[in-house]
Design goal:
Blueprint: H1 2-26, H2 41-47, H3 60-70, H4 83-86, H5 133-142, H6 151-160, H7 164-172, H8 179-191, H9 199-205, H10 214-224, E1 244-245, H11 259-262, E2 271-272, H12 294-303, H13 327-337, H14 343-347
Antiparallel strand pairs: 1-2
Helix pairs in contact: 3-7, 3-8, 5-8, 10-13, 12-13
Length: 355
């Protein structure tokens, strides 16, 4: 009798556990897990903690979803193009082409920007027209020469899939998808794309002088001295002042830059000062990709700055008639710039295509 009662009790317990599991499967619980974006202590010391919008805190579920969406071709009108099509990890999430091609084969007129440490930025795109990563993630989807889609169609395709509604529930507490949640998830993933593992970091912040050759040390001295590079590419861990400037590329800029959306004449020819992190793998250079190599860039700053360019940045006149770097100094500077590459970032499995 006692044995029968024990067996019955065990059987009842099994049924209860099974029922609980079924209930959990049918009625999942929304319980996102906060995710901390780990960076070296010196980063927050110099530039502060990465800010997140109050309505879009970073969670493991949101990042997982954002990563999947970053590589999702359903965002485009013909299911052939994703964010990663023009922002390739091996190129520090940049495009090695001068101009990216949209789904209809049309080329843009600006070089794709690298997505590196973008969580600290408040001016996104070359013309700075977006202040947040959420806003930045919105535009390529509807741009007629990029993904050429519309948000209702994107939402329809994602909603119809068997994969995405559960992922959206885990990230945002609802299986009903909308465009705001899509861009929020992508922005969460992009905030995790932090890069502070270069040889430069070991040398400058870690104090390991053995990781630089003499040529690279010479190049660093030029970068912070005669070259005046750190006037705009500050030694603040981000290697950018996060501003928009006219660096004297043209006497009569064909692209109005920031003025295109502000309408203010003093913004003509101003473009985002990009980070120099991973600059060795993000060619071609400048907003229009006109320079194929770092040597070309150094040659420009040495003797090619157009002093009569409208709204020339205040730091550029310091060049006078040109820096006139010697060939040896130019080579040294290029050697230093290549120390800014973070090889681990370029192959980090956490950022790769999960599909």
């Amino acid at each position: 009798m006692r044995k029968t009662i024990i067996i019955a009790g065990i059987f009842g317990t099994v049924l209860l556990i099974h029922a609980c599991h079924k209930k959990t499967d049918n009625n999942p619980v929304y319980a996102p897990t906060a995710q901390t974006i780990e960076v070296p202590a010196y980063v927050e010391k110099y530039v502060g903690k990465m800010q997140e919008p109050a309505d879009n805190p970073t969670t493991k579920e949101g990042v997982l979803l954002g990563r999947k969406l970053f590589y999702e071709v359903m965002l485009s009108n013909d299911n052939t193009m994703s964010c990663a099509t023009c922002h390739k990890q091996e190129n520090a999430f940049d495009d090695p082409r001068r101009f990216s091609l949209g789904t209809n084969g049309t080329a843009g007129n600006r070089n794709a920007m690298a997505i590196v440490n973008a969580g600290w930025e408040n001016h996104l795109f070359w013309d700075g027209r977006r202040a947040t990563l959420e806003g930045q993630a919105h535009d390529p989807v509807t741009n007629p020469i990029e993904m050429a889609n519309n948000w209702p169609e994107v939402v329809r395709k994602l909603q119809a899939s068997s994969v995405y509604p559960p992922l959206f529930f885990s990230a945002f507490g609802t299986k009903t998808i909308d465009s705001n949640m899509v861009v929020k998830a992508i922005a969460q993933f992009e905030r995790t794309l932090v890069s502070f593992g270069s040889r430069f970091d070991k040398y400058f912040y870690g104090g390991d002088t053995t990781v630089f050759s003499q040529q690279e040390k010479n190049g660093f001295a030029i970068f912070t001295g005669k070259g005046l590079c750190n006037n705009c590419h500050l030694m603040n861990t981000l290697l950018t002042d996060r501003d928009l400037k006219n660096n004297g590329l043209d006497e009569n800029p064909a692209d109005d830059g920031k003025m295109k959306f502000t309408g203010i004449s003093t913004d003509r020819g101003k473009f985002k000062v990009p980070t120099l992190r991973n600059i060795g793998v993000t060619a071609p250079y400048m907003h229009d990709g006109r320079f194929a190599t770092l040597a070309d860039v150094v040659n420009f700053y040495s003797s090619g700055v157009k002093q009569t360019s409208p709204n020339l940045d205040e730091h550029m006149p310091d060049f006078g008639s040109g820096l006139n770097l010697t060939n040896e100094e130019k080579a040294d500077l290029v050697a230093f710039l290549n120390t800014l590459t973070d090889q681990a970032f370029l192959t980090d499995a956490r950022f790769s295509n999960p599909n």
